Amino acid sequence: MGSLKHFKPSRKPELAGDATNCLSCPAEKKCIYSAKKVYEEKFLASGNTGWPVHIIDPEIEDLIETKGMAWATGRLRERLAENYSGSTPKEEVERRPWFGRCVYESDNDVCDDQVVTMTWDDDPLPSDQYRPMKDRLRGRGAKTAILHMIAQTEKQCERRGRVYGTKGEIEYDSKMVRVFDFATSRAEEHHPHQPGGGHGGGDDGLTRHFVNAMAAVKEGMSIEDAQAIHIGCTLDDVIRSHAMVFAAEEARRRMTIIDWEGWWQENVESTK
Fold first, then answer.
1. pLDDT digit of tens for each residue in the chain (272 aa)?
2. Quick one: residue 173, left, alpha or beta (phi over 0 = left, psi -120 to 50 = alpha)?
3. 149 — phi, psi (to 5°)?
């Protein structure tokens, strides 16, 4: 379930009036979503010419080196001031992003608050029926997972969560993993290496592991083993995880509960 609750015209600050672009908006100085505040004051003014500034203009970094900060700031403001109106062709509006557009007046229809609940029944391994159930259920017992995605949060572009087990619980964010043991009532904190970069280092990490997997296959390792060892998932896992996103969106739009096996059979298996 979820919807676009805040970033829509009905929630637009009254002071903004008819303005549709941050640089010409009378509410800009008081608006926490001002594009000028985000791109110029938060990032460019502090010397950050990487993401997200370079997405607006890839030449910003070179402009600072060759012509100075004032010139680069002017170029950034020019880009942010770009806008469209009701007479702008739909193809032109959809062709490119408009970074200075008022967040309350954009054509965005993406949820700013969404909750997805997923449940699994016991799923024992089918092989070796004579093995004890606890062995066949290793990691495959009944469980429930809840994903909450929201725009308004301190942890912008970060993941945090908590996993409740039968013997303890795990709490994590983008910097720390905390493990609590029910038996001892003790907690341990782990602080993994922070490589930096996109998605907390995830972009470079995925690329590195993919290259390692490719190299392993060239050296004779099977594709299945390379995926499991170097990437941590198979192509089937990737397809199923993406398919689950489409199933969740269908459940949200139809306001209903989706049975995964039936949905998979109808939308994936039947299309092969």
1. 999 999 999 999 999 999 999 999 999 999 999 999 999 999 999 888 888 899 999 998 888 889 989 999 999 999 999 999 989 999 999 898 999 999 999 888 889 999 999 999 888 777 666 677 677 777 788 899 999 999 988 887 788 999 999 999 999 998 899 999 999 999 999 998 887 777 777 888 889 999 999 999 999 999 989 998 999 888 888 999 999 999 999 999 999 999 999 999 999 988 76
2. beta
3. -115, 125
Q: How far apart are CA 18 and CA 33, in angstroms?
A: 17
- Return the SS3 of 195: coil
Q: From edge to edge, which strands make up the β-sheet containing 143-150?
A: 2-3, 113-120, 143-150
User: What angle (nearest 5°) sits at the alpha carbon of residue 34, between those of residues 29 and 10?
Assistant: 100
Output the pTM of the full model.
0.79
Q: Which residues of 178-210 are buried (b: 16+ CB within 10 A; e: fewer)?
A: ebbeeeeeeeeeeeeeeeeeeebbeeeeeeebe
Tokens 């942010």 -> residue: 80
Residue type, 207: T
Tokens of 154: 């301190």
CA distance linking residue 163 with residue 171, whole number of Å? 6
141 burial level (CB within 10 Å; 0-12, 13-18, 19+): middle
| The two three-digit tokens of residue 29, written as one number | 């100085």
Q: Which residues pair with 169 in a beta bridge?
A: 164, 180
- C-alpha dihedral (205, 207, 208, 211), degrees to nearest 10: 160
114: phi then psi, degrees, rounded to nearest 5: -145, 140
